[in-house]
Write a structure and sequence with these properties.
Layout (H helix, E strand, L loop, with lengths): L7 H14 L8 H20 L15
Length: about 60
Amino acid sequence: MANMIYCRFQNTLVDLQDCAENLEDLSDNEEEEKAAKRMIKLMIEMLEGIGYTVKRDQNQNILR
């Protein structure tokens, strides 16, 4: 079910926090790992879309 427009970001934030807390558990599930990578790519696109710069190395890997 889609999030209601009036609380979309609030609901998504809770889910995103859960994902962030469980990134280490991805090694067991290839599909979840793929989904996490797609989600991170989307987050980068969102950040860049509003003017943030995401630093990358020569191989386009994200730098911390």
